[in-house]
Structures are given as C-alpha cells and as structure tokens.
Amino acid sequence: MPKTFYPHEKKFIAPSLCDLLNPIHAIPGGIPLLLARGNKPLELSFEQQLNALVYFHLEEHTSGCHLIQCIDEDDFARDFVSGSKGIKKSTFFEAINSRGLEQLRYIYEQLQVQASAFLPSSHTDLGNLIAIDGTLIQAVLSMHWADYRSGSKKAKAHFGFDVNKGIPYKLSLTDGKAGERPFVSQILSPGQTGIMDRGYQCHKTFDTLQTDGKHYLCRIKANTVKTIIQSNPVPEHSIIFYDAIVLLGTPGVNQSEKPLRVVGYRIGQVNYWIATDRFDLSAEQVAEAYKLRWDIETFFGWWKRHLRVYHLIARTKYGLMVQILAGLITYLLLAIYCHKHFNERVSIVRVRQLRNQIKNELRHTGFIAPETAHARAKTGENPHAKT
Known about the structure:
- The protein has about 375 residues and is an alpha+beta fold.
- Helices cover about 40% and strands about 20% of the residues.
- Among the domains are: about 15-105 and about 320-380, no CATH class; about 200-280, no CATH class.
- It is built from 13 helices and 10 strands.
- Helix 1 packs across helix 11, helix 2 (about 45-60) crosses helix 11 and helix 3 (about 65-75) crosses helix 4.
- The radius of gyration is 24 Å and the shape is elongated.
C-alpha cells in the first residue's frame, strides 16, 4: 500500500483533512495487499474504498446512495475519493460487501496502538480498565444471518472500550441472539480489568479469568449466595455497606472455586453488588471503577448517532463489519485529531468544526468559489456538496 492516499491527479486536499489522515500514513509497512480476482483489474482500489468510507462517516451521509451521489456531483468529494473518474454505484456496493475487511482490520488495530500511545491516560490509579458490553444493531429482514426473533433481524457488536484512553479497543460481530459472556476472555488481555454489567455474571468465567491473569469488576444479582471467608471493615459515613472475601454461588451447584471479593454500595435508592478479584483496590475505588462502565454506553450513543450505524450500507455480515470498522477508524482518527488540536476527547462540536475548517480551506484556495459558497449558503444548500 502506498504511503499516501492521494494520486497525482488530485487537485487539492484541505490541510485539515490531510492532518486528520496523517496517522494512517504513519502506519508501518505490511498492510495486506488487496488484489483483483482473476485477470480483471480492480475498478475501486482499497485506498479509494477507505477514502469513501471515511468521507461517509465524517460527513454523516444518510445512505450509501447519498454518498455516491455526493461523489458524482461534488467536485471535492469526487477528487478526494476517486479522482476524476468517480465511482459506479454497483462497484461501490460490491466492494463494501466482498473485500477490504482484512485491510481495514489491520489499519484499525494499528491506529488503536497509535491512539493508545498518543492519548493521555485517566484513572491510572485504578489500573488498565476495559469496559465490556454488547450492543444491538437494527437489521433488515433480508439479512438472514442476523437471527434475532421472528419478524425481526438484528446484529450484535461485542465491544471492549479502553476507559483510560476513551477509545474502542476490540470488537466482534454476531447475530443478535448470540450470548455475550464467551467474548469476555477474547476481549481481555492479561493484566487488564474488565468492567461488566449483570448480564456477564458467570462464576465459572470468574474462575477462568483469575487463572488467566485477567481481572474483572462485574455487577451481580443482589440475591446471589455468598459464603463469607473474610469480612472487611466498612468505613463509616460511606456509600459502602458491604465488603467481604467470599465464594460466590450455591455449593455443589454453581459455586466459584476461587475466592473473590464482593463490594456492596448504595447510590440514591439503588444498591450495587460488585464481584471482583481486585483485592488491591479500596472499596470506594471499586465503586468508582464500576461507575466508569457508563463510558461505553456514552460511546455507543455517539457511535450509533454520528457514525451512521443506523444507516446500513451493507447487508452481508462481511459488509456490516466493513462499515463498522470504517466507522471506528474514523473515530480513532478524530480522537487523535481532537487531542492534538484541542486537548479534548471527541465531540460532535469538534467534528462540525473540522468540517467547516475543511470547507473554509477549500474556499480559500478557490476549490469552492466564494461567490458559489455564498449563493448556496443563502439558499440553505450545503456548500460542501450538491446533494
């Protein structure tokens, strides 16, 4: 893969857009080559496919057809994505559903490493925290692989979210009915602490994670049987009301083999029971760490709302994974960009600011004529596209 995504025929790329894409240029060699099948050359190169997908997510297009129309009618979009030739609709959708996944996964993993090294860490006193959860993606009935229930199709994305860095970590994609617990061990690496909600409670999994050197903070059901081995003192005037080393579950049925810790605390009228093998943390720190699980829910909301997961451009499992990875690549690029320029995490305010900056740079260079931009602005038309 070449070091740059911009063929010689390209007229102009806005400096801010170049800056956004620079982390991709910094990826070391070894990106798997995308080869044509048979003797027919590729009509859409991987570079063009990636550019199209990043542009789709950055501009929040409402569909694949919306993107193709923009590339066809908007000079800058066409120049950035494909050069002067444009992209055929059939070529684009064939590419999304059948190729580029290996390359996108490699780029995502490399950008994740870059972002982890570049972004500051928060909550370092609590260790390397990975929030784990699954989220459903609404599918259409023709997506037969996305089994959920009669008359409804959904896919499920299983995520690890790096709480310390504020970025997605690992992911898998299944049909909507797939269980979530098997993915915990796949997502976590030794030394990391997975933060999980009650749906992940499994005493056998707790034992396995401890054996593998992986840690956990998991909310459990209040009525779970606890065989106390050692009670720890509970601080006065604290949200903590329970702290003990226990065996969890019913003896002879589902009891854990390894001792673990259970911390109980109260927020408002709600009691939380947290099972963990983090004996090094105070009870208050356990409560603080579990509260950070909400970060993944915030990410899900942002991801679905602004990275267009609700607007499917693929129907196959392969194509949906291509779309998801491209969205996460865009998110990592934005995370690096926002920290570099604003020392902030990703926000829609900064994304809109970036879009406007790109348009202003294009107007300044004459790529978008000021009078044309002004005329479009008066009619309410987006000066960055003719759609």
